[in-house]
Amino acid sequence: MTDVAVIGGGLVGLATAMALAERGMSVTVLEAEDRLAAHQSGHNSGVIHSGLYYKPGSLKARLCVEGARALWSFCEEEGIATRRCGKLVVATHEEELPRLDELERRGQANGLAGLRRLRAEEIREVEPHAAGIAALHVPETGIVDYPAVARAYGKRIERHGGRILLKARVTSVRPGLVVETTAGTVSSARLVNCAGLQSDRIARLCGAEPDVRIIPFRGEYYELAKTDLVRGLIYPVPDPRFPFLGVHLTRMIGGGLEAGPNAVLALKREGYRWTDVSLRDSLSIAGWPGVWALAARFWKIGAYEVWRSLVKSAFVRDLQRLVPEIRSEDVHRAGAGVRAQALERNGALVDDFRIVETDRAIHVLNAPSPGATASMAIGRTIAAQIL
């Protein structure tokens, strides 16, 4: 018997288990794969976000700012390499300027220190190879190796007496919170569902009826051979209709330079390639009314994402808007990640974090970016609810 079973060994699940273990509760983490951070937590840009993008007062805004502060401290304590390299959000067209104004307002409301508006001629003082008509410089943004963070979370859980079970895929949840897994049975007094791409299904196994469905969006990355073109991070001004930040350029903690991700509908919840297709997951997508409502509104954008995924030159053109010196021959395909995006029945993409409490269980039903940055703050919030 354990006080709390935490389903999911990604950053949010591990941070939750860590917060509970540090408060003296017995905790068991159930991870379906053979390693921690196997999916979203291990397939992202490695960015420690500052809280610039998020609506003031939202969970995302509050927990991102709190989580970033906690994460910087944690990494310093654990000796995990980080770099506070800063970020530019660059406007390249006049119609993007009102959106840049709104980002500046949000950043100020969320308490970002050092946030600075740049004119066109000032952009190259920060990023010598970047181009645009205006930009926001966000010095608090940084980079880290998130799989290393996940491993450190895991070690701290175990130091406080918690257990982590790998290859423990949940198959059923019986009354009384008896959790059947491929690694055996775990009985718990409380349950926290941080299953990411499978979170809505786990919620249903627990008897809950979530009003959203997880829709997987694959984000593909490229590596750039000319790493001297970017000092820190360069982002476009995002489209406010979508909870995606657009294709951007990111310094990696190991010294490389990465571009991406895009956002392509995946036909498998863990579908990292076009050839990864699951009949069950495809039927789940097609059977949700919100998918068709979303497609009716944004089919042109969806078609462009597919085109940009299949045609390298389209991807490169978008990068050249930010850094004109990028050449196609210097851009090489790299890995991909899959984002668990909650979609409502009416076709609305859930923008904020969504954490739902039911009888003796808490379900994290939407925690994409900046979920990694906010993981410690999310974990502490959930721990406080349980305690």
Could you characterize what this model shows?
Helix 1 (11-22) crosses helix 10 (375-386). The two termini are 18 Å apart. The strands form 3 sheets. Strands 5, 6, 7, 13, 14, 15, 16, 17 and 18 form a 9-stranded mixed sheet that branches. Strands 1, 2, 9, 10, 11, 12, 19 and 20 form an 8-stranded mixed sheet that branches. The protein has a single domain (2-386), classed as FAD/NAD(P)-binding domain (3-Layer(bba) Sandwich), CATH 3.50.50. It contains 10 helices and 20 strands. The longest helix is centred in the C-terminal third of the chain and has 22 residues, at 289-310. The chain is globular. With 387 residues, it is an alpha+beta fold. The model has no long low-confidence stretch (mean pLDDT 96).
